[in-house]
Amino acid sequence: MSTKAAGRKNIYYHLIGWMSFIAYEVSFVTIIRWKTADISIWSAFVFPYLINISLFYFHAFVALPFSFGTPRKKPLLFSGFLIAELIAYLILINASDLNFAKFPGSFTAFIYPNRIIFVEHLWRFVYFLIFSTAFWLIRRSYKRIHKLKDAEKTALLKQQEKKDLEFKLMVTRNAFLQSQINPHLLFNTLNFINNEIHQLSPKASEAVICLADMMRYSLEETKKDGRVILAREAEQIANLIRINKFRFENKLFINEQYRGDFEAVRLIPLLLVPFVENIFKHGNFSDPVNPVVLNLWVDAQILYFQATNSKLKKVSLPSSGIGIQNVRTRLEAFYEGRYKLDIANSASVFSVSLTLKL
């Protein structure tokens, strides 16, 4: 609905509301008090209601917003508005009743010849002021709720757009890799190499099998929701460690601890593998005194991962430097507000700690 159409609709609501209110008062109050003397419709109904309605809107749209519509409250300004409204109301409401002509004389004499009229008019002033204040409070509350809903809706849309973009990016990357290297051709080739070298080198054959499993995991296993079971991610960590054990003739000192039901939880793939890969790029895993520490456990749908290793003085493998940064980006996209990643990188030690609510 456009702003102009919404404005017209609000005007219709106000007109219907005032017509109903005036009809109620005329039917149940004014007619009961009708006197046999001639009464002017203008002085008895039209002018008083115009003054009362004007007071209602002035108080709701001017006095209260200027006094309390900002973070800085202005009680003195409100008191000034209240006094001015009261004086103007009393003068106008009596002028509409033609008291100037009926009671000539002093200012107070023609305005209020008796206390009953004064009390009646004062009560009507307070009466409409209460309605006006209630209207302003309800209107302000509605605006705040509407703003909160709009803000929540905008935040949800942005979050969903961010997740959709990240997921599309991941799908595009996988599609790109698959378009460059046909998985079936790759796996058939690896199987051929494995069959050829199995008799010559069982270790090399097992390394090829581990590599094939890692390639299959990275290219084929992601489902529609972009997640895999944690057990498969843990298997790739084991494959990576096994391959490097073959490379370094089992001269690896790694303390591993795994705990929890890895079949019961799901996460985005290749989230933990880059941290383990980082160990074999930069870590010193041949020191029995300071072995690599690798812990992975799950408890009540919360994943805990810790890895600590001493660093090599000279890096043995080249690194693009984007692996861990990609992990940060994917964590923010898929688990915003549900993870804590702490990385300590000193001259001699590298450690990473990840807590993730799945």
Quick synopsis:
The chain is α+β, with helices and mostly antiparallel strands and 358 residues long. The chain is built from eleven helices and seven strands. A hairpin with a 2-residue loop joins strand 4 (292-299) and strand 5.
Describe what this molecule looks like in 3D.
- The protein is an alpha+beta fold and 358 residues long.
- The chain folds into 2 domains: 3-157, no CATH class; 251-357, 2-Layer Sandwich (Heat Shock Protein 90).
- It is 63% helix and 12% strand.
- The chain contains 11 helices and 7 strands.
- The protein has helices at 3-30, 41-68, 75-95, 99-102, 107-111, 115-180, 183-197, 202-220, 230-247, 273-282, 323-334, and strands at 228-229, 254-259, 266-267, 292-299, 302-310, 339-345, 349-357.
- The chain has a 5-stranded mixed sheet, with helices on one face. Strands 1-3 form a two-stranded antiparallel ribbon.
- β4 (292-299) and β5 form a beta hairpin.
- α3 (75-95) packs across α6, α8 (202-220) runs antiparallel to α9 (230-247) and α9 (230-247) packs parallel to α10.
- The longest helix is centred in the middle third of the chain and has 66 residues, at 115-180.
- Mean pLDDT is 78; it is low at 99-108.
Q: Secondary-structure element sequence?
A: HHHHHHHHEHEEHEEHEE
Structural class: alpha+beta
Spatial order of the strands forming the largest sheet: 2-4-5-7-6
Helical percentage = 55-70%
Distance between the termini: 40 Å
Tell me about the largest β-sheet.
5 strands, mixed
Count of folded domains: 2
Principal-axis shape: rod-shaped
Number of helical regions: 11
| Unreliable stretches | 99-108
Question: What quaternary form is this?
Answer: single chain
Radius of gyration: 40 Å
- Beta strand %: 5-15%
Mean pLDDT: 78
Number of strands: 7
